[in-house]
Amino acid sequence: MLQPYASPVERAWYYGMRGLVGLILAFLFLPILVIVPLSFNADSFLMYPMSGFSLRWYEEFATSPAWRQALMNSLIVSPLATLLAMVLGTLASIGLVRAEFPGKALLTAVLISPMVVPVVVIGVAMYIFFAPLGLTGSYTGLVLAHAILGVPFVVTTVTATLQGFDFNLVRAASSLGANPLTTFFRVTLPMVAPGIISGGLFAFATSFDEVVVTLFLASPEQATLPRQMFAGIRENISPTIAAVATILIVLSTLMLMTLEWLRRRAERMRGARS
Amino acid sequence: MSTAVDTSAALPLPAAGDGTPLKKRLRRAERRRNLLFGALILPLALVVLVAFIWPIGSLLTIGVDNPEIHDNLPRTLAVLEDWNGSAPPAETAYRALADELTAAKGSPAIAAIAKRLNRENAGYRSLVMKTARKLPLDAAVPAREALVAIDAQWGELATWQAIHRAGGALTPFYLLASIDRMIDADGNIVVAPEEERIYVDVLLRTFWMSLIVTVCCLVLGFPVAYLMASLSTRHSNMLMIFVLLPFWTSVLVRVAAWIVLLQNEGLVNRLLMWLGLTDSPLQLLFNRFGVYVAMDHILLPFMVLPLYSVMKGISPVYMRAALSLGCPPFRSFWKIYFPQTLPGIGAGGLLVFIMCMGYYITPALLGGPKEQMLSYFIAFYTNQTINWGMAAALSAVLLAATLLLYMVYARYLGPTRVKYMKAR
């Protein structure tokens, strides 16, 4: 806080700092907002000034077979990949937190490694490996690849949540006669659900925004939304891209809000316990 | 003691007169628990091993794989095993080669042999293809005579040395090529001819561009994190939204936004012309500038988040102490506060650098030919020219650089912060 008795230098520092940060945040934030109005532009150029208001680019998005197919593909691949990543990742996280065995650190590193290895390398490796197995140009291959890319986010968030989880609650449940399955669904799961959901959100965002591996693995019939956008930006950038971008911005805002809500909820619960 | 409590709940108490000592039963129960929980890891471990680690491992082996001669001319190579290498080999080697080339004729194998030998000496491709056209040989004539009659090069020592050299199961060729080196006829590692030297440049460019992006991210990210750490939680949470929304927005949306802004008739050029800073639109896209701007925009949150979490943990007491002891503000900032942020700078910097090195989308969409980094060439050799050996070797270089930096990051700067990494 700026004190009333602050020296001129302190004042300059105080306002200078805020001005600078404001500019940097504008650099982060404004570019994203700039594209939104253009999606309502009446003519077909992606530039200002706009010639009038129109929803034609949303109509174009909704009716063009290529974009519809891309949306469909994204809505098939991403949820399935997320589900797979969440189930496998959550089980593995419970194992990683509860079991003790030699080489655990190495195994954890291996399970998290898809996050570290450059995506291009992952794409090439999977392409060369999947091709002879008939998994390129198939939904199975794409879902599998996206799930693997999402797994590290689930594993890191869920292990972090589990480390703060009091396993005496599980002991209490079993000592009161609940079987392990009941204990899991009635005690463990509700407590670690926020971690699983935020891990899942990360995994979903990863898959829903994934281009590079998809470029290698997907046939044109499996082009996802980002893949289609990549092609659109590269070939001829039209206001349809702006319309899709706007929809994606709304979606990411929703995901961010969900995550923020989960974080606050977790904070409240921690506060309530201590 | 906690482990004892842990398992006793799941176990019936030792019955009186039961021979097994409690300690042993405890160990057994713990083992069982470990197996049970360990089994939960199994499905994921299997999926990751089979569909991730294995493909990457086999990609890396492609980079040193050398099957063309080894698999297609095994008999010739077997004969050459006992060859002294100082003069062209005996008739048996010629016969074996002629037979094996005849067998390979008309299949993709012959093209593979020709291509591989051509790498030893430009011109061997036509030698092999020409010879293959004239095969099979007349069995009555000695193979040596017949082959030399087709082309005199078969009588030369160098040709056989080339076959012998190319016959190993593994080759360092691609790995050496990825650092602009090659093996000459005498088996020495030498610098590749000037017109073929590109990868060291690409590698240096990748490092250089990543470094610039990292430094820019640090310069932009530091004040943001600093201010956020000094504000109350409510205010810093508000600022955080400005950082997190771009972070969650699709990379392609942001690339499209920068195209809108930076194109010739874009807002940035209009602003510059309106301000009178330039008369004609500047070229801001499809060059370094565009790539730097978009990369910084995409990677800035990865710098701000670790910096913020480190700065949040720095107690303001030290600064106050320095100030109250008469140290000037800037000096106390530099001497007291700044050193405490170094873990955050290290973590954010390495994170941004690592992600930047492997970036493909932004340079591909916003850069010109001179902005393409390693990833571009890896994709190029996989999809366009189908030179998997080269793609694999360049992948190995990129992977090695990434893992090395990542190990530094995980070792010194805490693996917990990896959660900030997001899809590129």
From TrEMBL, chain A:
Keyword field contains Ribosomal protein: no
Domain of life: Bacteria
Family annotation (InterPro entries): MetI-like (IPR000515), MetI-like_sf (IPR035906)
Signal peptide: none
SUPFAM superfamilies (alphabetical): MetI-like
Gene Ontology process terms (BP): transmembrane transport
Subcellular compartments: Cell inner membrane; Cell membrane
Transmembrane segments: 20-40, 75-97, 109-130, 142-162, 183-205, 241-262
Cellular component terms (Gene Ontology): plasma membrane
Annotated Pfam families: BPD_transp_1 (PF00528)
ABC transmembrane type-1 domain mapped to chain residues: 71-260
UniProt entry keywords in alphabetical sequence: Cell inner membrane, Cell membrane, Membrane, Transmembrane, Transmembrane helix, Transport
Membrane topology of this protein: Multi-pass membrane protein
Family statement: Belongs to the binding-protein-dependent transport system permease family.
The name this protein goes by in its record: Polyamine ABC transporter permease
Lineage: Bacteria, Pseudomonadati, Pseudomonadota, Betaproteobacteria, Rhodocyclales
